[in-house]
């Protein structure tokens, strides 16, 4: 069946959450939001393109930092209201310069930092 | 630092997205939503507990199906507005009886089904 981004389920702001996973290691790198046009651009360019809610603008991941996300595979969930993008990530995915945004764990009621920023 | 679920960033409905990942294989199983009380219950019981938006009720994953999610580790992202739960999943995570909800891929403009339902 031909894929049409309009068939996905978007929230009241026209957005759908997109989880980015390292295609090779399986590590979860980040979660951000896409609108229908971001989904199309991601598929057309193979550069993962989110919608920045703070800037209200398209956000080609890594466009300014150089830490691009190259699309390897795009997955849709059963409810069609969440996306999984398997990517080849250049450099760190997190704006704190860590590999992943999920660098804090909760263990025995305490927050524990699992990763340190990569050397610039 | 002691972890307090109230310090997470929830949306206008008081919810935060939670990504469930198989702790052993790294496979992404599903994405659902939690409120502050679901986060507390998940940590207290080690059974992953979402908030069902359709039923407007707590949803102990697998409570009726038996396909429980046992919490292995809880992670918080840099913006504190998304959670990652590493789990030990009993049975399939998806209500379609597939291991993961992300069983559809978009390849060359077509939707491709990657997984079939497990035998009941």
UniProtKB/TrEMBL annotation, chains A, B:
> Which UniProt keywords are present, listed alphabetically?
Amino-acid biosynthesis, Cytoplasm, Histidine biosynthesis, Hydrolase, Magnesium, Metal-binding, Zinc
EC number(s) stated in the UniProt entry for this protein: 3.5.4.19
* Broad EC category: hydrolase
Keyword Hydrolase present in the record's keywords: the answer is yes
User: Which Pfam families does the entry mention?
Assistant: PRA-CH
Check the record and name the InterPro entries matching this protein. PRA-CH (IPR026660), PRib_AMP_CycHydrolase_dom (IPR002496), PRib_AMP_CycHydrolase_sf (IPR038019)
Record field: catalytic activity: 1-(5-phospho-beta-D-ribosyl)-ATP + H2O = 1-(5-phospho-beta-D-ribosyl)-5'-AMP + diphosphate + H(+); 1-(5-phospho-beta-D-ribosyl)-5'-AMP + H2O = 1-(5-phospho-beta-D-ribosyl)-5-[(5-phospho-beta-D-ribosylamino)methylideneamino]imidazole-4-carboxamide
| Keyword Zinc among record annotations | yes
Task: Identify one Gene Ontology CC term for this UniProt entry.
Answer: cytoplasm
Which GO BP annotation is one of this protein's? L-histidine biosynthetic process
Functional pathway: Amino-acid biosynthesis; L-histidine biosynthesis; L-histidine from 5-phospho-alpha-D-ribose 1-diphosphate: step 2/9; Amino-acid biosynthesis; L-histidine biosynthesis; L-histidine from 5-phospho-alpha-D-ribose 1-diphosphate: step 3/9
Cross-referenced NCBIfam families: PRK00051.1
Q: How does it assemble?
A: Homodimer.
Under PANTHER family, the record lists: HISTIDINE BIOSYNTHESIS BIFUNCTIONAL PROTEIN, HISTIDINE BIOSYNTHESIS BIFUNCTIONAL PROTEIN HIS7
UniProt family annotation: In the N-terminal section; belongs to the PRA-CH family. Belongs to the PRA-CH family.
Function text: Catalyzes the hydrolysis of the adenine ring of phosphoribosyl-AMP.
Protein name (record): Phosphoribosyl-AMP cyclohydrolase
